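TODO from last week: model Ankyrin repeat protein.
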Amino acid sequence: MNNSLFKSVFNNKVLNKLIFNKVNFILSRLTQSNQKLYKWQEIIEDPYILASHGYFNEIKACLSNRIKHVRLNYIRLFERVIRGGNLEIFKYILEYFRIDRRLKIGLGDAMLKTLLITASRIGRLEIIQYLFERFANYKWDFVRAINDVPQSNDLDLLKMLVDKLEASDPNEFDDRFDDRSLREAFNNAAFAGNIEIFKWLLNYRPKDFQGSMVFGYAIAGNQLEFLRYLFENHKDHYENGSNYLLSAMECEDTFEIFELLMQHTEFHMNQSYYPAYFGNLKVLKYLHSKSLLKCTHYEMDKAAIFGYMDMLKWLDENFKAGCSTAAMDEAAQRNQLEAVKWLHENRTEGCTKEAMDGALKSGHLEMAKWLLKNRTEGHSFSITSDIALTGNRQVLEWFIENTNHKPLEKDPTILRKVVAKGHLEIVKYLHERNGEDNIFYFTSEIMNIAASQGHMHLIQWLHHNRTEGCTEDILALNENIYKEDYTTMVQWILENKSQVDIHSIRTEDYISHLIQLNQFELLEWWLNKLELSKDQLIETKRQLYSKYPLSFDSLDLLDQYINK
């Protein structure tokens, strides 16, 4: 795609509106799939998408805000870059993660090893050559790269890496690879179904084939022709056939593999539950035709639970084992309304209270309405509180309005439990019905509970809509403030709740915590609040530099404050 032309269209407001106003609708009609469709604004804010599709200028703009992306997953990002194949973006991301600085302090090895392995698996020769040229003196882990390269289906790349391995000093290898084992290379060749690479490996390292699991990997990769090749040429390597057979039963796409394995594997009657679990009616019919199918209620239960209607009806027509109450109970929980209706009309086993409980707690309102109208088993005594604890206000209100079950006022701990789970809509519901008698027990402890679980949205709502506030030890008694997701909440509480003193928590430990997370924007706020002396800053850096050497931004910020 011509990115320059593409971006010029986006920047033209008239063309943009004309062409892309209905793009989501058109794409959804064309694809008829569940694939996520992104708006342009979402794309330019997501470095992983930008990396995958080669948007160089956009990814630079996106990553310019280091604060927003301080916890970026470098393995995931590099994989997207390598899959995209844009060398310039790859070079930029290397610098973004300060690879030279990492190597200088001896902490860049894991990153470089990951890059070579990923590029080998995806088959990006240009990126691999750049790595070898840029880091010419680095001791590369060729063995792990060779083990992954068959997934790329690139025999020439495999040969090149093997040449590099043969030319290297064996003493430079990681101790885990002293034997230069390439078993995983055989496995990955099987998974990819590449007979040519497999034969080449067999000629190069025959001893490693003995420890491989090529049959299992070929089955996992749905490689029928590769399996035929193995049975014709390496049948003696076929072991644990029963486990392989179970893998082939998982979906109808592997039915031909299943048939092939049946020619070489002893089938056990107690394995028939497996295709029922995965909804593989084709395998069930095959086993039945061979008089190998022994059914219990389990098979029909699973068919109902997962909504396999064709299987459910077929089992009912061909076997007398029936089902159990678990069929309707769990089908209701999973919102399999068609299956529940069919069981109600065609079977006599019925259900238990678990059916209504499961539907309500899972938020399946239409299922709950149907059960209330058509079944008499009812629900459990604690169901109102149970619904509240799911956070589903719509279901809660419907249930209270349409049944005579006890109201939430009878549960003195419901507010605390709901707050602990972070369910704002239920807190609002209780607030609206609290009354002058404070029947749900709103106190200053409620905000403390929200803080203990990191529910900042609840804290802010309580702050604006209730008057109880919090206690002055809301942070001092909260050990969770040292979790990564709590730092912004801690800052908000200190800025908005005057009764909470910044020194109520261990400030030295908290600064250490922020540096560990490299949350340098929050660190700057804390440094301004605490007004530490130069000697204190120097001592802080001395203690933490060796402990968190990769927190470059935070350590650089400390230097700035030291040098002020």
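Done. The two ends are 49 Å apart (CA to CA).
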